Amino acid sequence: MENLKGSKKEAIQILDVGSHNLLSGPDFFNAKIKIDQQLWAGTVEMHIRSSDWYAHNHEMDPNYHNVILHVVWEDDCDVFRSNNTVIPTLVLKDYISSSILLEYQKLFYHKESSLINCSNDIGDIDDFVLHNWLEVLYFERLEKKTDLVAQLLMESKNDWERVFFILLSKNFGLKINGETFFEIARRLPFPMVRKIQHNALQLESTLYGLAGLLEEDIVGDGYYESLKSEFDFLKAKYDLLDGPWQKPEFFKLRPSNFPTIRLSQVANLYSKHQNLFSKVIGAQSAGEIYKVFNVSASEYWDSHYTFGKISKKYGTKLSKKFVDLLIINTILPVKLSYAKHMGRDVNDEIINIISGISPESNSIISKFRMLKLQFPSAKESQAVLQLYNEYCTKNKCLHCAVGHQLLNRKP
Question: Is the pTM of this model over 0.90?
Answer without folding.
Answer: no
